[in-house]
Amino acid sequence: MSETNHERHKRGKYSDPSPYPEVKVLSPNLNYAEILMDDYAGVVSEFTAISQYLYHHFLFKQIDKELGELLENVAITEMLHMEILADTIKKLGGNPVIRGSNSTLHGNFWSGKYIYYGTNICKQLKADIVAEYKAIAEYQKHIYYIGDFHVQAILQRIILDEKVHIRLFSQALQKFCGCQYPPSQINQTENTVR
User: Fold this and answer.
1) Residue 69 and residue 58: Cα distance in Å, rounded?
2) Ramachandran category for residue 140: left, alpha or beta (phi over 0 → left; psi -120 to 50 → alpha)
3) How many CB atoms lie under 10 A from the CB of residue 5?
4) Would you identify the CATH topology of the domain 23-192?
5) Are 84 and 6 in contact (CB under 8 A)?
6) For residue 151, which phi and psi values (nearest 5 degrees)?
7) What is the pLDDT along the chain (194 residues), one digit of tens a residue?
8) Which of 42, 150, 160, 172 could form a disulfide with 16 if both were Cys (CB 3.0 to 4.6 A apart)?
9) Which residues pair with 99 in a beta bridge?
10) Under 8 Å between Cβ of 54 and 114
11) Which of 131, 164, 168, 156 is nearest to 42 (CA)?
């Protein structure tokens, strides 16, 4: 998939307006591909986020149409991230099967137990916010471990979308639950996570 196609799949207000970098690598590197497998389909991963957000979408759309659309469109944005990661993993020489790496006990296949299903809208939205913060932390760690500036640029660009998702989920939490999460640290954490 070319850079142009990645742009075509953007979801408006559900992603950062900046362009996605072209998917390319300095050279094949199976170690880097393995690191990205955790972002792709590990415990904290795009596949986990897609599955969790779709599950929440199926419930939220019955509560409020706009809230249902939020979770659906964020899930679709995460699908684009997963596709970008799959393309990157392939260029690095890896095989993007649906498994993680270290987070899934050395390459076990993905499991539905990684999802936070939840019992009510407030707990689910809080879990969605936490998932985004965890994803950003994982991407930042992997940017540090991966010495390929092309791959680093891809991960940095994905982080920008995850920050948009935190803002959107936080607005929904305020609207439907009358609170922020975490209550006093959300702005401080957002400023820390770059």
Assistant:
1) 10
2) alpha
3) 11
4) Ferritin (1.20.1260)
5) yes
6) -65, -40
7) 444 476 666 668 999 999 999 999 999 999 999 999 999 999 999 999 999 999 999 999 999 999 999 999 999 999 999 999 999 999 999 999 999 998 888 789 999 999 999 989 999 999 999 999 999 999 999 999 999 999 999 999 999 999 999 999 999 999 999 998 875 544 444 443 32
8) 160
9) 109
10) no
11) 131
Domain ranges of the chain: 23-192
Phi, psi at 109, each rounded to 5°? -70, 155
**Inter-CA distances, 75 with 16, 28, 105, 132, Å:** 15, 29, 25, 12
Which residue matches tokens 């199926």? Answer: 58
The two structure tokens encoding residue 185: 């640290």
Q: What are the tokens at 18?
A: 């900046």
Give backbone dihedrals phi and psi of 45, rounded to 5 degrees, phi first. Answer: -155, 170
Q: Which two tokens stand for residue 34?
A: 């393995």
Alpha carbon 78 to its chain centroid, in Å, reads 5
